[in-house]
Structure formats: structure tokens, C-alpha cells
């Protein structure tokens, strides 16, 4: 048991590459942590970590040992959870990385429902569109839109949707209503940077059109606001603008046309998920399933 405990301490140090940070996470003195790792190295007979006053680095043996240990430690933690009540009453801090727009539009109300159902779970949420290093940044799950990255991460599909076209009554009154995707070349379109070609589908027909965009930005909320203010045509999932449509602030155009399927995944480092992560992913799937197409 002592060996397994020391392995768990080594994994925590290796994740953050710092005795001080690992000691803070583990709520134990740095000197005690360093001594335990030294005992582990003596028992193995190999140096696992290079220590300097500025940084900690894994040795070649340390890299090999870390890859094996993190799986063993993860399985041991999971076994302890399954023996107790944590599957029915999971607890702890859940660290989640989310794209800003997806979190705002889709997840805020779902998170409120989740914490009411699982009061023992707290959240630390990192809002960023960039794929984070789950291990180095101690993230339990990252939610990302688009096809999963070519990596060792495990992808759990949550939902998928398609982009559609919308504009404000003010804009359509001034510029007219497009009758075909090819008409978009004569209109102001609101787009993400480096996305000046929109591909649209209708039954077996596909049209790719190069659009003109006075405003190019990577925030769906601001793009939506610009469209409401009459600054251009918006290409986004229906769910993003549903309230605006109900309020008459935006109108659908070219309704029979839609964009590519855009999937959403929850990414984890391993399939052996702690209870808090497992129930969170299952809850998201159940709530977002209605958006699957």
C-alpha cells in the first residue's frame, strides 16, 4: 500500500512538474513530498526526476514510470470509488474547459440543473476555444466543437448541429432577401476569421460561395448582436438565435439550405473516468440529445 501511495504522489508531481504546486494540491509539506519521492527512487533504484532550484523534469526512466503509474493510480482511485457511495453521490471539484460561446448558449442552465442534482460537486471552469493540456493543467474534461483532435485523448460525443442562415428585418429591408446561396456574394456576411467560404447543402445539391465580410470575429455572441443591428447575414445553429427569432429580431433566410454537421465532444485523458466526470458526461448527453440530428 505504501508503494501505491508513493506512486500516486509521483504522479501528482509529474503532472504539474513542481513539488510546491503538487504539495499544495495534496495539502502536505513540500519537504515530506520530496522525501517520499526520494524513498520511491531508492526502492526502484533509478532516478525518476531531475531537480534544480528552478524546475523539475522527468528522466527517461521517469517518463516510462509515469505512463505506467498514472494508469495504475487511476484504476486504484476508480476501484475505491466503486466500493463506496461515490457513484451515487459523487463529490469533489470538477475542472472543465469550455468554449465561451458554447458554454454561454448551451451549458449555463444545464450546469444549474446538474449542481442541484449533485450538490457534492463544485466546478472550476476555464473558458477558452483552444485545446488545453488536460494533464498539465489538471483539467478533468474539455468540451470542444468540431471533429476530435488526432491525439491520445478519448472523445465522447455529446451532440451535433448544422449552421443555418439568419438576418434582421432591418438588413433584409435595406439589402433584399437572397433567393439562392450564390446571392450571398452581393451581401454583407458575418463570419469567423479565415472562414470566407460558406458551404451549403439542400438535398443532393451543394453550393460553396465566397462571402464578403466587413466584420470577422471569433465570438458568436458579438456576431449575433451585429446581425440583430442590421450589419449582415449570420451563419449559425438555430439554437443560438432561437430567442431572437421568437422576438422577431432575426429571420431565417434560405431555410431549405444548411451547413455541414458540426459535432460536439467531451474529451478526457482516459476511459477510466472518476464518478464526478462520468455522471457529468452522462448528464450532458441526456440534456443535449434533443439537439442531435
UniProtKB/TrEMBL annotation:
Residues 1-59 form the HTH lysR-type domain. One of its GO terms (molecular function) is DNA-binding transcription factor activity. SUPFAM superfamilies: Periplasmic binding protein-like II (SSF53850), Winged helix' DNA-binding domain (SSF46785). Gene3D superfamilies: 3.40.190.290, Winged helix-like DNA-binding domain superfamily/Winged helix DNA-binding domain. Keywords: DNA-binding, Transcription, Transcription regulation. One of its GO terms (biological process) is DNA-templated transcription. Belongs to the LysR transcriptional regulatory family. This is LysR family transcriptional regulator. It comes from Acinetobacter suaedae.
Amino acid at each position: 500500500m505504501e508503494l501505491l501511495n508513493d506512486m500516486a504522489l509521483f504522479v501528482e508531481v509529474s503532472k504539474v512538474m513542481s513539488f510546491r504546486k503538487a504539495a499544495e494540491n495534496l495539502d502536505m509539506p513540500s519537504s515530506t513530498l520530496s522525501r517520499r519521492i526520494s524513498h520511491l527512487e531508492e526502492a526502484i533504484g533509478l532516478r525518476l526526476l531531475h531537480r534544480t532550484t528552478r524546475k523539475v523534469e522527468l528522466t527517461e526512466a521517469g517518463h516510462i514510470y509515469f505512463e505506467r503509474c498514472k494508469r495504475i493510480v487511476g484504476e486504484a482511485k476508480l476501484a475505491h470509488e466503486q466500493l463506496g457511495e461515490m457513484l451515487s453521490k459523487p463529490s469533489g471539484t470538477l475542472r472543465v474547459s469550455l468554449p465561451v460561446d458554447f458554454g454561454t448558449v448551451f451549458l449555463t442552465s444545464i450546469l444549474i440543473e446538474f449542481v442541484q442534482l449533485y450538490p457534492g460537486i463544485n466546478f472550476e471552469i476555464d473558458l477558452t476555444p483552444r485545446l488545453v493540456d488536460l494533464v498539465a493543467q489538471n483539467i478533468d474534461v474539455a468540451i470542444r466543437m468540431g471533429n476530435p483532435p488526432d491525439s491520445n485523448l478519448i472523445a465522447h460525443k455529446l451532440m451535433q448541429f448544422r449552421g443555418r442562415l439568419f438576418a434582421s428585418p432591418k438588413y433584409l429591408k435595406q439589402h433584399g432577401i437572397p433567393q439562392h446561396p450564390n446571392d450571398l456574394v452581393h451581401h454583407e456576411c458575418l463570419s469567423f476569421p479565415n472562414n470566407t467560404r460558406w458551404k451549403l447543402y439542400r438535398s443532393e445539391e451543394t453550393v460553396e460561395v465566397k462571402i464578403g465580410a466587413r466584420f470577422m470575429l471569433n465570438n458568436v455572441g458579438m456576431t449575433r448582436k451585429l446581425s440583430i443591428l442590421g450589419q449582415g447575414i449570420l451563419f449559425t445553429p438555430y439554437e443560438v438565435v432561437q430567442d431572437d427569432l421568437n422576438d422577431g429580431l432575426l429571420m431565417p433566410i434560405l431555410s431549405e439550405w444548411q451547413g455541414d454537421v458540426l459535432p460536439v465532444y467531451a474529451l478526457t485523458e482516459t476511459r477510466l473516468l472518476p464518478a464526478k466526470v462520468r455522471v457529468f458526461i452522462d448528464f450532458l448527453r441526456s440534456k443535449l440529445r434533443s439537439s442531435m440530428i
